Amino acid sequence: MDAETKRAGGLSEMFSLSLGAALVFFSIFWSVMYPGDPQRFAAAALVFALPQLALAPARRVLSSPLAMVAAGGVLALGCAVGSFMELQTARIYVYAAPWFLTAAWYFNVGCLLKGLELVRRGRRGLALAGVHLACVVVSAGRAADGFLAKEGVFRTTLKTAPGVMPPVEGYFAPGERSGTFVERSDDEGAALPFELELVSFEVKFYPTRKGTLEPGEDEVKVGGLAFRRAGFAFEGEADVRGEIPASRAKEAYAVLEVSAGGRKRRIAVPLNGSRRMGDVAIRCRAEKPRDGRITDFRAEVEIRGAPRSFLSVVNVYRDGKKVMENARISVNHPLRVAGWSVYQADWGRYVSLDDWEALPGNLRTPSAFEDYLAAKGIPPCSFFTVARRPGKLAVYAGYLLMFASLLMFLSLRERRA
């Protein structure tokens, strides 16, 4: 009988080791052949992982402190490496990689088995069990987010602006309405349980910085940029001149040298005109001619402050009925509706493709385009991301359980002292 028991125990240990080794080699094989497909790997890996729970030797190994520390160390190392990667790359090669999922499986199974063992050891054991089980609950929430979470943008009319190619999607113009969700640009899209309509959008900026390069001055500094007078030039000519005939003032440009951080660039601004480059606007005026020649100019520089806050006002519809009116969405203040979260993510100055085609060619430069939008009173567009994370509540519950268990453990230690 003893010989049979030992033989059965030996077979059980050998089978446990074989299953563990098979899971490790399978994870390596899957990493090479099918990177970025965690759902199929998880389903296939259960063939090796679940039978281990029925074997006593495997359970002893999995619940041992050494095994949990080793698996936890692998997870910690993976998280540290992933934090230095771009998010999408980290998801493929770290967080959704088979080796990371295998380590997470061993760590959480170990925590679960150890937690169930500690429950039977009185109040102190119950507190320690809560810490172990909290890790399992947090991991379950993270896994639910990893496998079931959805994140993308709304499908809207395609829009564009100078230098934007291909056209962008997801930007709402005031009055635009959408209830279609897309995860990628080539996605066919899926219907959301609600529709979002942008009522208005407002951007607040930090104060504008201004400076003037007066006639006779060589340089003015505005907002970290130095503007130095370079001279005059004509279109199609590379030479910069110190003076020009007054009769050619309408076709001339004032040339400024802009420098910042050791880098220099020359900018030509129409004489007696203006030019905008992103947040920088420059207006130049020629000085009075002397003996029929213009020798100097005045340059007024404005640098628009960085965006301080975005605010979108929206209406929400469900089944064609308005269920929210003038709801506000801003950075760090998302809108929650029907289990989804709508986040204020970006903004931009765009027009629809039809409006773009109708624009004259002289309005398709960045400065002329922004001046045109300002003159017409066309507001910026608002950009949202929409996400559903079903595991979020489980993650919060796990952290709450861990905090409560730690408090219980510390209070019991103080009483014993």
Reconstruct the topology from this structure:
Blueprint: H1 2-33, H2 38-49, H3 56-62, H4 65-82, H5 87-95, H6 98-118, H7 122-148, E1 150-154, E2 159-160, E3 171-172, E4 177-182, E5 190-205, E6 209-213, E7 219-222, E8 225-234, E9 244-245, E10 252-260, E11 263-270, E12 273-277, E13 280-286, E14 293-294, E15 297-303, E16 307-318, E17 321-330, E18 335-337, E19 340-348, E20 351-352, H8 353-358, H9 366-376, E21 381-388, H10 392-416
Antiparallel strand pairs: 1-4, 1-21, 2-20, 3-21, 4-5, 5-16, 6-15, 7-8, 8-10, 9-14, 10-11, 12-13, 13-15, 16-17, 18-19, 19-21
Helix pairs in contact: 1-2, 4-5, 4-6, 6-7, 7-10
The percentage of residues in β strands lies in 25-35%
Model regions low in confidence, pLDDT < 50 over at least 5 residues:
3-11
Give the terminus-to-terminus CA distance: 49 Å
Overall shape: elongated
How many discrete structural domains? Answer: 3
Helix fraction, binned, reads: 40-55%
Largest β-sheet summary: 9 strands, antiparallel
**Cα radius of gyration in angstroms:** 32 Å
Number of strands: 21
The helix tally amounts to: 10
What is the arithmetic mean of pLDDT?
A: 84
Query: Structural class, judged by helices and strands?
Result: alpha+beta
